[in-house]
Amino acid sequence: MCVQTKTFCTYNNNKPWFTPQLRMLHQAKEEAYTSGDWVLFKQLIVNCVTANIEKMLDSKLANIIKPVSEFSGKLDSLIQRMGTAEQRISDLEDTSAATAPRVKALEGELQKALDRLENFENQSRRQNLRIVGLNEGSEGRTPVEFFEKWIPDVLGMQTDRIKLDRAHRTGPPTRLSGKEGPRAVLVRLHDYTNKQKILQAARNRGTLSIDGSNVSFYQDFSVEVVRRRKESRKAVLNSLKKDKIQIAFLQETHLNDEEHKKYRREWVGQIFFSSHSTNKRGVVILLHKNLPFTVTASFKDTEGRFVLVKGILHGEVIVL
């Protein structure tokens, strides 16, 4: 409530809205009104407003400073953790650098051991042969006796009997495995030299068809060798398929350049081969001397995986 005194109005100081600042301004106004010093009144107003602004800023800044302080604390913690992580990484790098040569040496020793193990396995299989395509049950209940007579007879070898240590089908019966076609036959020869004779006789015999099935003879290799041969053949087939080339002949000879020359026999007119330095692979194409084939281009893989020959035969362009 305002009470008029002369030309100046006074207020009830007990009201809650009558703050100390207002009280100070009110007093300054009374003094200025009484003394007539309005410069002092203006200065008091400026001081009061400044004080209010400072108080307001302090209140606002307090709300900003608190989260900034919290963020600063978290940042310090993160910097400390990063320092610890960097130190641990540095320690691990030092340890890794120290152990890397040892690990590499151990890997080399392990590979040597695996190579020796694979070599031993292949050595243990060197007297084995795989017969693929022979109908199930052809050998009866005595497979050893059957194949001792069957092999030389079907291949036209000049012997009545070849001694075997054992003979059996590989893998589970077809009715259990679910695979189509007869299982391969694994035979172990008593004499290694007979293996080479059988393979040579099979090559000379050519295509062998028994009871409507094509029968083939192969060497018996370890699982790892078979896997690598499949991968190599797959790479060759993919490469040839990409170039849209039809395959006429592909045979692994395991011979080097000099050894391939032994194929230059009397009936051979032209020879094309590709070799591998370690005798792990190799291919050769032989053309009869009476074959009217004119070569126009040839290409061979430096890894001994395939050789391609393009030419003209009876007026037609063909690729071997």
Automatic annotation (TrEMBL):
Coiled-coil residue windows: 75-130
Keyword Glycoprotein: no
Keywords, sorted A to Z: Coiled coil
InterPro entries: Endo/exonu/phosph_ase_sf, Transposase_22
The protein's name: Uncharacterized protein
